[in-house]
Write a structure and sequence with these properties.
With 161 residues, this protein is mostly beta strands. Helix content is 14%, strand content 38%. The protein has two helices and six strands; from the N terminus they run αββαββββ. A hairpin with a 7-residue loop joins strand 5 and strand 6. The protein is globular, with a radius of gyration of 15 Å. This is Phenylacetic acid degradation protein PaaD.
Length: 161
């Protein structure tokens, strides 16, 4: 996959993107109070039913003691993208979809200053349970993006409280 920014954003996608009304606020209702996503600098590039693509830049304060991406930062980035794919961008009055479990495999070091892209896709939905894959890539100067982690999330739709 090349840069996610080359994709055509869906209506309701990232602020500043075609099809998004910047005055309407965040492109997804779950981002309204999500301080973690804001701190991460997460940008929504595309939203569709069962799909989300996001980006963020790996900053110095996101690194571990080895000077590479902290696994928790990669997890939080993937988990937020997973949540965006699981929940309709129009919102729901009655339900929310949350993680019931995840597995993550770290494959390569995340390098400071690089742009990370998370691409989440629904693989299966059965009743209130779902299965999603999230691939996390990082930009490579002068080359193709490389996969740095794979995240598999299991979702459960529950009543809103």
């Amino acid at each position: 996959m090349t840069e996610a920014t080359t994709e055509t954003p869906a209506p309701g996608s990232a602020p500043g993107a075609p099809g998004h009304d910047d005055a309407a606020g965040p492109p997804h209702p779950i981002l309204e109070g999500d301080r973690t996503a804001s701190w991460l600098g997460l940008k929504v590039r595309r939203l569709d039913d069962g799909h989300a693509t996001t980006t963020m830049t790996l900053r110095e304060e996101m690194l571990n003691g080895f000077g590479i991406a902290h696994g928790g930062m990669i997890f939080a980035f993937a988990d937020t993208t997973f949540a965006l794919a699981c929940n309709p961008h129009t919102g729901s009055a009655d339900t929310i979809t949350v993680a019931s479990g995840v597995d993550v495999n770290f494959l390569r070091a995340g390098i400071p200053g690089r742009t990370l892209t998370a691409v989440a896709n629904r693989r299966q939905q059965s009743g209130r349970s779902g299965l999603y894959d999230v691939q996390i890539l990082q930009s490579v100067p002068g080359g193709d993006d490389e996969v740095i982690a794979e995240f598999r999330g299991r979702s459960r739709t529950i009543p809103k409280r």
